[in-house]
Amino acid sequence: MKNLVAALVLLTASVSFAAAKTREQRTADVRKYVAEHVAAMPEMSDAAFGAAFARVPADHPRLLGSAGDFAAIRERAKTDPLVAAGVKAVIDHALYYATLPPLEHKLSGRRLLGTCRKALAHISATAMAYRLTGERRHFDAAVATLTNVCAFADWNPKHFLDVAEMSLAVALGYDWLYRDLPPEVREQVAAGLKKNGFDAFVKDAARTRRSRLLAGNNWGQVCNGGAIAAALALWEREGDAARKLLRGSTERLVYPMRVYAPNGAYPEGPGYWGYGTTFNVIALGLLEHACGTEFGLSKIPGFRESAWFRDWVTGPSGEMFNFSDSSLERRLSDAGWCFAAHGDPACVAFFERGALLEAGANRSSQLPRTFPCSLFWLQDRPLPEAPRPRVWSSGDATGITVLRSGWTKDDWFAAFKCGRVGGPHAHLDVGSFVFDACGVRWAGDIGSEGYGRIEALGVDLWNCSSPESERWTLYRLSNASHNVINPEGVRQSVGNAGRQIYVRDEDGVCGAAFDLDGVYAPAIGGWKRRTSLVRGRFTVEDAITGAGEKPVTWGFATKAKATVDGRTVVLEQGGKTLFVRADGPSEAVWSVGPAKGTNPADGDNSAWTRVTLSAPAKDGKLVYKVAFVERRL
Q: How far is residue 75 from each of residues 32, 131, 377, 450, 561, measured CA to CA in Å?
């Protein structure tokens, strides 16, 4: 197992940074990886696929559940408070969606994705509401959206996530409502799903360059999940073509799922974990129900452990460590309920259970567009009581380390990123941290830029592996905005990496150290970051060598009001106060200014302040020592 994990991590690095290769070569590399790993999985042998395909039900519904499974959800809702809350939330949203005007085939920039996501929310909720209540108004609303989107000329295959999300939407509606659909409507929906979804997947799978179904990030999970849904929905209509697509997409999932190894972290951040992992568990649920097996995919190293990933990176403030292009706000997730149903019920205790009860009680609560799928897994199970560790490390190329004094809202929390510079959705943020205390995020990550706005300005946002990419000229994505040291005028070195030296919890004090020598190489000779955390005190110490003549500053971003008072910065936010003390060097001077870059395309960061500590290097050496404390000495 250790050798497999090591191989997965090494392959992630080699494929992500194979920029010199042609797209054809990179596609061939991925196909080879998939073939080799599938060959090593007995669950994916020819015989295993043959036996599984023979078990696919001839009747509908067959996507995630049977008619009996829908009936079981209705029965559980009578006695199970979680299921009752989930069912109520779905019905409330279905009633709202029925009041909205028809969807339009209108691109936003290069995407139809907003429309496709609305379709997925509308169809899954209204179709599920009809199956659970039998009320005709839900059926009519679902059919209206199905026929609406199936009349579109296409589902925008130029941005393939659009095809994937719309295919899942239409496949669920077609399958769940199949027996009640008038024959002409059934034919119209099936034809739309085939033309705009199924055929697009078949065509993409055959591409020798840049097949979206061979993507190694969230695209691979979302696109193959949509393909699996389309293949199973049209199983009896498309025959061998459906079998070929289903097998191919099942096998291709081994490639994007490699990123979870070894401890469940997600390199694109916790927001994209919610996206990719949700489609991943839906894909596995589709396979498990229809084929009686998920072909060993859930055994891929780190996948089951990822059930806890968002808990680890959520601070006492309720905000997540939003590294890469991730979101800051944590919302209800579908994936957690799947993990809970498959042997890990405690993974929903920290956040998901309370969020679901709130969603059931409050009609205005947001509901994930795929949430109706969760009802097949949802059940209020006994939660084992066991103390959670206070330190965690991802152990992968992304290099996430978390320290916390405990798991209550009043505890102290810090999370660091120390791995590779660059990669999908990456920022130049290696070595950066976020910090919570007393329920407040004091040092934060400003976050990502709006994709559509930046693309409309002509900025190349998606070259994430080149040191010369325009992406790094944007303030929010550069090291200048992150909580790191900043040599003047120097970017972090894309392709290089830092590493964790240690992480530990000893005598009630959590600590970690990182070797970040390569992060700014060759501009500076070395950078070591060491940190410790205990309730009431969080310290960060940075030792810099080979600094040269250019200034090297220390800094962090905050939404708090920041006031310099000698060697201390006073932070005030939400009626609370925290102090940041410069313990070294003696010449260090604090400054407070706007979090602002020089690129005209930069977004508005006026809600943020940049707090900076500056000192001259002596013989190229500089050691910054900073302490966040709750009481001023």
A: 47, 13, 14, 43, 53
Do strands 552-558 and 485-487 pair parallel, antiparallel, or not at all (unpaired)? antiparallel
Q: How far is residue 361 from each of residues 92, 373, 511, 571, measured CA to CA in Å? A: 10, 19, 41, 36
> Which pLDDT score, from 0 to 100, does residue 18 have?
43
Paired with 437 in beta bridges are: 440
Cβ(74)–Cβ(128) under 8 Å?
no
Strand partners, 314: 320
Q: What's the chain's length in residues? A: 633
Which residues of the chain have a pLDDT value below 50?
1-19
Alpha-carbon separation of residue 400 from 265, 394, 424, 430 (angstroms): 8, 5, 16, 10
- Rg of the chain on CA atoms, in Å: 25
For residue range 121-144, list pLDDT tens digits in order.
999 999 999 999 999 999 999 999
Burial class (CB in 10 A: 0-12, 13-18, 19+), 604: exposed
Between the alpha carbon of residue 89 and those of residues 100, 172, 369, 527, the distances in Å are 17, 18, 12, 50
Note whether 127 and 370 are within 8 A (CB).
no
**105-109 CB contacts, 8 Å cutoff, 24+ apart:** 105/152, 105/153, 107/156, 108/452, 109/451, 109/452, 109/455, 109/456
Cβ-count burial 432-449 (b if 16+ within 10 Å, e if not):
bbbbbbbebbbbbbbbbb
Question: What's the rounded Cα separation, in Å, for the pair 268 and 221?
Answer: 13
Please give the model's pTM, rounded to 2 decimal places.
0.94
Q: DSSP labels for 406-417?
A: -SSTTS-EEEEE
Residue 619's alpha-carbon distances to 475, 515, 624, in angstroms, are 30, 21, 15
Nearest partner of 83 among 66, 67, 71, 65, judged by Cα: 71
What is the identity of the amino acid at 86? G
| Residue with token string 């009481």 | 631
66: β partners: none
pLDDT at 362: 87
With a CB cutoff of 8 Å and minimum separation 6, the contacts of 595 are 446, 475, 481, 557, 605, 608, 609, 610
Letter for the amino acid at 143?
A: V
- So what's the pLDDT on residue 6? 45
566, amino acid identity = G
- The SS3 assignment for 589 reads strand
Spatial separation of the C-alpha atoms in residues 505 and 260, rounded to whole Å: 24
**Residues 6+ positions from 43 with CB-CB distance below 8 Å:** 293, 295, 296
Q: Cβ distance 278 to 333 under 8 Å? A: yes
Cis peptide before 42 (omega within 30 of 0): no
Other C-beta atoms closer than 10 Å to the C-beta of 354 total 12
Q: State residue 7's pLDDT score.
A: 44
Query: At 623, which helix (H) or strand (E)?
Result: strand 622-629
User: Distance (Å, rounded) from C-alpha 222 to C-alpha 277?
Assistant: 9
Q: 450: which DSSP letter? A: P
Are the CB atoms for 5 and 258 separated by under 8 Å?
no
* Side-chain-facing half-sphere of 113: CA atoms under 13 Å: 12
Apex CA 368: angle with CA 364 and CA 370, to 5°? 135
Q: Show the tokens assigned to 281.
A: 């568990």
